[in-house]
């Protein structure tokens, strides 16, 4: 399912540290002489380095203590202060207020110059040249009814508007090239409620640690050991399968099998949202979460089945904050899921086709309640140097049952890396490259081969091969919350079809954070 709102940009800190030397009185000012040196000229006065707390535009500044007041010495040369981090939002966001209001706009222009294809079907990626533009705007709001950090409560309400379209109406690729695109263009750009959730923290200790205040969590400190509960309307990748290198389509990669685990068929409607709840336990170096959510009524539907007793998606994830390199940050996450919904079976659909029951394989003709699709994922991020990070993912699902909510992938393997631009004095700029390889199993292959249509794929026939994608980008921070980016994607065997492609997609995107 296309997930429209992953840009949780989490408010990067802007630190302001200003040291103002305190000028002492002029040498001509009268000063009492000391008894030990009544006849000698006054010794040079000690220089006091005082720090003054200046309100930062977004985050509180750290404050140095007054420097030496020891023995007399010549005035010290002023030391060079570190340059403050650049502001990366148009408007400041307070740390102390009970409210959170912010917004973002993301615009992506993509072009496909065309590629070789001897045939195409109803759900093919178009081989003729085309270009499309998408736009996504989000308003984030939050409220803290009280300031008890150990038992913090947040009320979250976010509103979105999605406009424009994707290449080929976002069809024909398992790893589509734009995470912002909705596969149903008839939904239009009318604003809608994206998130409406309650976030409750239950502290299990009075020991606190710092936390980044952001759109989904307004606390600046949280208990080291705690339980967090979220209920309401949300998107699962807000909580599960997070990766700092490959989860943010606004500043990083655009392909949706790079930003998410493609084999994770997570519960969601057409826009990428669902209703349910998550319970999470967090400890010093590890955490565990479980969530249960409503499934769509049919594949890629905008409507959800509210009867959890007959249709639901369950998700489990374990996080381990452990680095493979001493002195560097690293995290490993293990994810599993099981969807129970009104789904079909690829093998049964092909059997009905050969029995003459249907003119071609039709997955909807064999849908029934009680069908379960399950799988797991592995996710790692590792800091190599101060500026270089790498990421990897692996995902698998049984793929006998219908791909229902996210995309048509049974197995995925990803490696990715990004590099910050501090070396060329652009610390907020990033360059990244990723390779992802997607696959489906034999029953799914046969379904497409004999003319079946999924909610994404369907060339009319199939000469199967793995869909391999390489993506590279450069993101340029121009001013405050304004970013621009260039992106290139190469798709080998689009839609798992060796007869078509390879395809190239070129992108230019702009992003504004308020």
Looking at this protein, list some descriptive labels.
single chain; 514 residues; 16-stranded antiparallel beta barrel; two-stranded antiparallel sheet; 4% helix; mainly beta; 39% strand
Describe this structure in words.
There is one protein chain. By secondary structure, the chain is mostly beta strands. The protein has helices spanning 256-259, 346-354, 442-449, and strands at residues 19-21, 49-51, 99-112, 130-143, 153-164, 192-203, 208-210, 221-223, 226-234, 274-282, 286-293, 312-320, 330-343, 368-383, 388-397, 411-421, 426-439, 467-479, 482-492, 503-513. The strands form 3 sheets. It has a 16-stranded antiparallel β-barrel. The longest helix has 9 residues, at 346-354. Residues 1-73 have low confidence and may be disordered.
* Beta-strand percentage range: 35-45%
| DSSP strand tally | 20
Order of helices and strands: EEEEEEEEEHEEEEHEEEEHEEE
What is Rg?
28 Å
The largest beta-sheet arranges its strands as 3-4-5-6-9-10-11-12-13-14-15-16-17-18-19-20
Counting DSSP H or I runs of 4 or more residues, the number of helices is: 3
Mean pLDDT: 86
Shape: globular
> What distance separates the N and C termini?
27 Å
Structural class: mainly beta
| Main pleated-sheet profile | 16 strands, antiparallel, barrel
User: Could you list the spans in which at least 5 consecutive residues all have pLDDT below 50?
Assistant: 1-73
Helix content: under 10%
């Amino acid at each position: 399912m296309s997930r429209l709102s992953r840009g949780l940009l989490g408010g990067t800190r802007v630190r302001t540290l200003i040291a103002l030397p305190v000028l002492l009185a002029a040498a001509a000012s009268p000063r009492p002489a000391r008894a030990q040196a009544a006849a000698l000229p006054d010794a040079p006065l000690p220089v006091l380095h005082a720090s003054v707390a200046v309100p930062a535009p977004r985050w509180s500044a750290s404050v140095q203590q007054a420097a030496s007041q020891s023995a007399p010495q010549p005035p010290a040369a002023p030391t060079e202060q570190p340059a403050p981090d650049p502001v990366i939002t148009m408007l400041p966001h307070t740390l102390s207020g009970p409210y959170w209001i912010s917004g973002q706009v993301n615009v992506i222009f993509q072009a496909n110059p065309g590629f070789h294809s001897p045939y195409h079907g109803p759900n093919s990626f178009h081989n003729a040249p085309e270009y499309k533009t998408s736009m996504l705007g989000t308003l984030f709001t939050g409220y803290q009814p009280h300031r008890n950090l150990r038992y913090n409560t947040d009320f979250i309400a976010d509103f979105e508007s999605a406009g424009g379209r994707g290449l080929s109406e976002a069809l024909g690729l398992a790893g589509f090239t734009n995470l912002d695109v909705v596969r149903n263009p008839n939904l239009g750009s009318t604003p809608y409620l994206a998130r409406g959730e309650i976030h409750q923290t239950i502290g299990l200790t009075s020991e606190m640690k710092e936390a980044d205040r952001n759109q989904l969590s307004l606390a600046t400190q949280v208990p080291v050991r705690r339980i967090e509960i979220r209920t309401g309307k949300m998107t699962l990748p807000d909580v599960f399968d997070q990766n700092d290198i490959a989860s943010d389509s606004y500043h990083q990669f655009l392909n949706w099998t790079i930003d998410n685990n493609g084999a994770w068929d997570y519960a969601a409607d057409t826009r990428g949202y669902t209703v349910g709840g998550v319970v999470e336990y967090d400890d010093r170096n590890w955490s565990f979460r479980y969530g249960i959510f409503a499934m769509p009524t049919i594949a890629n539907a905008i409507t959800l089945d509210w009867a959890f007793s007959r249709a639901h998606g369950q998700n489990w994830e374990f996080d381990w904050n452990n680095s493979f390199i001493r002195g560097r940050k690293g995290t490993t996450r293990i994810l599993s899921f099981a969807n129970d919904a009104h789904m079909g079976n690829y093998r049964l659909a092909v059997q009905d086709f050969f029995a003459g029951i249907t003119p071609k394989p039709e997955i909807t003709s064999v849908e029934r309640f009680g069908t379960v699709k399950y799988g797991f994922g592995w996710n790692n991020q590792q800091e190599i140097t101060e500026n270089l990070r790498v990421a990897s993912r692996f995902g698998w699902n049984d793929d006998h049952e219908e791909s229902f909510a996210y995309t048509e992938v049974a197995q995925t393997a990803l490696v990715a890396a990004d590099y910050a631009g501090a070396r060329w004095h652009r610390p907020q700029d990033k360059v990244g490259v990723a390779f992802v390889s997607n696959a489906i199993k034999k029953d799914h292959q046969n379904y497409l081969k004999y003319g079946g249509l999924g909610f994404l794929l369907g060339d009319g026939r199939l000469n199967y091969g793995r869909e391999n994608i390489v993506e590279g980008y450069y993101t340029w921070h121009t001013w405050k919350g304004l970013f621009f980016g260039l992106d290139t994607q190469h798709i080998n065997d689009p839609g798992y079809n060796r007869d078509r492609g390879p395809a190239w997609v070129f992108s230019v995107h702009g992003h504004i954070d308020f």
